[in-house]
Here is the input.
Amino acid sequence: MHLHVYDEDLAGKDSIGSAKIDLKKHDFSRSPYDAWIQLPAMLGLRSNGEIHVKIEYHVSHFEII
Here is the structure.
């Protein structure tokens, strides 16, 4: 999953940072994905902060009539 985070104010929309999460490594049958993700600044020399990401997976059963 690729995350691109922007602020939005009167001056427009500015990029805060971006990150990538490899969801193939997480077992959703055991627990939701719940982590604080760092938003590295340009060239990864410092951080522009972090974002809290929580992802849950639910199987939905339905019938077609």
